[in-house]
Design brief:
single chain, 85 residues, alpha+beta, three-stranded antiparallel β-sheet, 2 helices, 29% helix, flat
């Protein structure tokens, strides 16, 4: 199996790029086709349910939908929360 020599990255610099989930190829294509709707729905949901503003920086397809990587604007944290839609 081909693996990079250094497969670890700091959570402070990780953006989610290169991340893949099983069974997500088809759902990722759909999510990218409807990117504006996915981004809008995610932002509206998090604003309504958690009263927080977010920036979305990556979407990765999974077997049930798409995992959305976000940055919280109003909370300073060293982790990257994920939301699976």
């Amino acid at each position: 199996m081909d693996r990079p020599e250094d497969q670890y990255e700091s959570v402070l610099t990780y953006t989610g790029d290169g991340y893949a989930l099983p069974g997500g190829v088809e759902n990722e294509k759909i999510a990218k086709e409807y990117k504006d709707e996915v981004v809008s729905a995610t932002k509206e949901y998090l604003k309504k349910e958690y009263n927080t503003d977010v920036d979305i920086h990556n979407m990765v397809g999974n077997s049930d939908g798409v995992t959305v990587f976000i940055n919280l604007r109003d909370l300073y944290t060293s982790t990257q929360p994920r939301l699976s839609l």
